[in-house]
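Re: the request from the purification team.
They wanted to know what the chain is likely to look like in 3D before they choose a buffer screen. I agreed to run a prediction and write the result into the notebook, where they can find it.
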Amino acid sequence: MLDALSITASAYSTGESVSFYQGVKGLKDWEGPHRIGRRSQITHSHLLASAALPVLFPSVKIGNQFYGDGAVRQLAPTSTPIHLGATRLLAVGVSGNRTKAPLENKMTEAPPLSQIIGHMLNSAFVDTLDNNLEFLRDMNEVLDFVPEHV
């Protein structure tokens, strides 16, 4: 059963990652470092805002603020489902760079601008999920040592 739906977008005026959610009664708004959760009636505007990649698509006005791509400031992507009561997560990655490049792969010339931009985009959009999932795995391993009755 689905208890909640959330769409995250970046608020340009505050720099916060805002998770708009709708769901069952009892869910509460939350605040964390550079991220907040706000109960809202999800509309197509929330979806458009979350997908509004900077420079490529225009920002979207919701209420009195303009929003853009939700991944830009989403430093803890698994935070929202946990706040909404999830006990299990399925993360679908879109990155094809799961294999590490060999260290011997030395460049003889400076990388082109396109490669540098790609590197920056990966760090903004892909690395945060990988790092957040690693943190969750580590925390779950620690919790395995805690007795159930504690």
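For the purification team: The chain has one domain: 4-143.
Please add any questions underneath this entry.
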